[in-house]
UniProtKB/TrEMBL annotation, chain A:
It comes from the Archaea. It comes from Halogranum rubrum. Keywords: Cell membrane, Membrane, Transmembrane, Transmembrane helix, Transport. The chain crosses the membrane at residues 20-43, 55-76, 88-110, 122-141, 148-168, 188-208, 220-244, 293-319, 331-356, 362-382, 513-534. One of its GO terms (biological process) is phosphate ion transmembrane transport. Belongs to the binding-protein-dependent transport system permease family. CysTW subfamily. It is a multi-pass membrane protein. PANTHER family: PHOSPHATE TRANSPORT SYSTEM PERMEASE PROTEIN PSTA-RELATED (PTHR43470:SF3). InterPro entries: MetI-like, MetI-like_sf, Phosphate_PstA. This is Phosphate transport system permease protein PstA. Signal peptide: none annotated. GO terms for cellular component: plasma membrane. Its main location: membrane.
Automatic annotation (TrEMBL), chain B:
The keyword Cell wall biogenesis/degradation does not apply. One of its GO terms (cellular component) is membrane. Residues 1-12 have a biased composition (Basic and acidic residues). The lineage of its organism: Archaea, Methanobacteriati, Methanobacteriota, Stenosarchaea group, Halobacteria. Residues 1-30 are annotated as: Disordered. This is Phosphate transport system ATP-binding protein. Coiled coil: none annotated. PANTHER family: ABC TRANSPORTER I FAMILY MEMBER 17. GO terms for molecular function: ATP binding; ATP hydrolysis activity; phosphate transmembrane transporter activity.
Amino acid sequence: MSNASERGVHRDHSPLLPTVSAGVVGLSFLTFVLAWLVLFPILTPSTQLVGGVTFYDVFGLAMLLCGVALVGSGVASRTGYVPATPSATAGVTTGVVLGVLGFVVTGLFVSQTLGIDGPMGLGWFLAAFVGGAAVFVATVAPREDVGSTVPIGAFALLAGLVVLLGVIGDSWTWNPSGLAATFSGDMAVPVVALVVSLLTAWAGAKAYEGFGARGRQLGAYMFVNLNAALMLFVLFVLIAFIVYRGLPGVLRGAAVGLGTGPEVAFGLHLPFDVPFVTNSYGLRNDVNGVLPAVFGTIWLVVGAVVLAVPTGVGAAVFLTEYSREGRFTQVVEIATNGLWSTPSIVYGLFGLAFLVPRFGNSASLLAGQLVLGFMLLPLVVITTRESIKAVPDSYRDASAALGVNQWQTIRSVVLPAALPGTVTGIILGVGRIAGETAPILLVTSSSMSPFPASRFVPRVLSGFQFTAQPPFVTNTELLQASSALPYQLYALITAGVGAGAGSDADIDPWSTALVLLIVVLTFYAVGIASRSYFRRRLQE
Amino acid sequence: MSKTDTDSRSDTQTESQPLVDHTVEGETSEEIRDEWTNYDFDGEAKLSVSELNVYYGDDHALKDIDMEIPEQSVTALIGPSGCGKSTYLRCLNRMNDRIKAARIEGNVEFEGKNIYDADANLVELRKRIGMVFQSPNPFPKSIRDNISYGPRKHGDIDTGLLARVLGRDDGEREERLVERSLKQAALWDEVNDRLGDNALGLSGGQQQRLCIARCLATDPEVILMDEPASALDPIATSKIEDLIEELSEEYTVVVVTHNMQQAQRISDQTAVFLTGGELVEYDDTEKIFSDPESQRVEDYITGKFG
Ligand SMILES: Nc1ncnc2c1ncn2[C@@H]1O[C@H](COP(=O)(O)OP(=O)(O)OP(=O)(O)O)[C@@H](O)[C@H]1O
Ligand SMILES: [Mg+2]
């Protein structure tokens, strides 16, 4: 039977193997999701479900079922009971991955459960090595349908039994010698279930397509998708958690309705009021707010971008279009890469030593903008260079052949085509500098309370003053120290308390974090919108 | 425009011993080659190339080319792939300068002045000697902006904000120029209702005609075309061929082609390059295709090699 579909274009429609494997994949997927929910403690593993069943039992049963089904599918396929198109072997890569797993499991079992150390503490190592090698051979030696199901199935079965029988369960703890940490059952079980479910989902997907090239394709697809889902899940949980903890604090005293908000201009009021965002700190406030810090962060980022983008793009144009590729550009390239990976506290130290003494010897917004601008600069140079290099030479040739000089060509053809890449760089960079704490602490906020009163809101635009003598333009606001959201967050966390003493007016760190998140995401949104605008100009 | 049929030496060479010139070995002796490539024509030479050698690193891509290109006519360049036609074409507006590995020796005189002189103005030169590339390369801009790109950058058309504020907006002239150029390139009917669309959305053949229109918009005197019809269907090809014939009344056109019939249809004179970067024969198109002097050229034209 297995030979019948060996060269067939269509899958043989005997439903048994696909049905069973689809069940394995589905069950693995549920286990995977459940394991994450338990790990993030959204669910408690020892919760009693119907009939005294706990999540431990659910994990155990699911793994057991997957294991049995997988071993069954492998054997059924090998004996020709169900049609399949397996290759000769599951492959060395699969063998190595499963072998390492076998090594770890045997090693843990021998050293921790049996407590065998052997001569010079190497006994467990030998046993683990033998275990790993055995799994490797069991995977690689038989035909693919057995090699990629039976070892995984057996492992799942074993794990399922261990959990079901309560060997590892609620009251189980493990104190690895030499480590201060203690692992408990409600941590170990979901982790084991995660690993097992990834493996069984993969093996199940392979079996679904009857192994062979098509099976491997679906297996890989399953694996990649589960991992992508995992990333999104982690991201989602992070954001959801911040919103969950921070939102009540942000919305304290918030109101919606005509004329409730603060005055904007000419007696017009915003139709909503969020005092946490629009207030500063003051003794008579019902709700203390973060307005000075929000403005501080916004002006820091804007200043850094204004400084870094023109200089960075200019440097990238010079390096890519004008100077010849050679020793010089290589050195600059290494230097820019190095600057981008320089720790921010080093930039902060530089600012403290060189900028602060030159700006009236006090911390200032301008010093922070410069330091963050220097941090952003290398990324702008790197991404702009890469995207300028990616502009096809045929555009430059076409322009040159029309008698257009190099600078005009760069300005009207090369830069517009490279702009989306530059914006991507700015987006990434802003994400980093907006949350930067160390340099701000040193050069912008050191003499400032993290929770300043309203007169410390930096009003940069109205701070410009024009004079008849050089320097013609001055801005005292830029030379003032300022708070910033990450600085405030740092102060809240290290102080352990809010600005007040446990009263209603306290500022909650999670609320500050949420506002910071919103500010950064707003910068992202602006960046992404402008990038798609520039892209559309190239395509429509 | 007649060949030097009074030259008796050439006659003896070709008539009494037609196959003697080492044709099988490949290299033709210098004297004979000079003879075969010495094309005599009435009127003025727009471009005259002498002792042109091009090297790509150690690779000698063009060898001692001497060639005079008459004005207001169509000159076809033919030859097997890799023989240096594109390289030669790029020498005529100094586009080879842009290739780092390329080294160019010799003279190319444009209206009596060597374009390789140190004081030559490249921008001005390329404005007057336009080029259409082997593969279409429109800018990622609208069709209209592609056409008006050259004139705008040269300052001939100003639609900028300042011009608009000062009431010196050339918008209307721009529209007229776009329409004229697109009509010349036989593209107007297909795109006149979507001039604001991105040029990259056009088909390959349309893009090629757009590049021709873009080149015409800067009003050059010489137009260099590198296989302008290689991406086109027969209908578009014949449109381009008509266009080239029309252009030759006003412009000097040099066109590379792989298509013998096309060369015969559109060109007044044909230059045959053969592998190794030699110009082997250059004469009236009729003469080249009916009675070539060189055996190798005849073999190439009749499809025996190349
Ligand atoms: N940029 C370059 N760098 C190095 N060598 C080059 C370069 N361009 C062309 N050459 C070499 O010069 C020779 C002539 O190339 P050219 O492109 O002029 O040929 P061609 O006659 O136009 O061929 P085709 O008909 O295929 O377009 C070839 O041997 C090619 O390898
Ligand atoms: Mg070519």
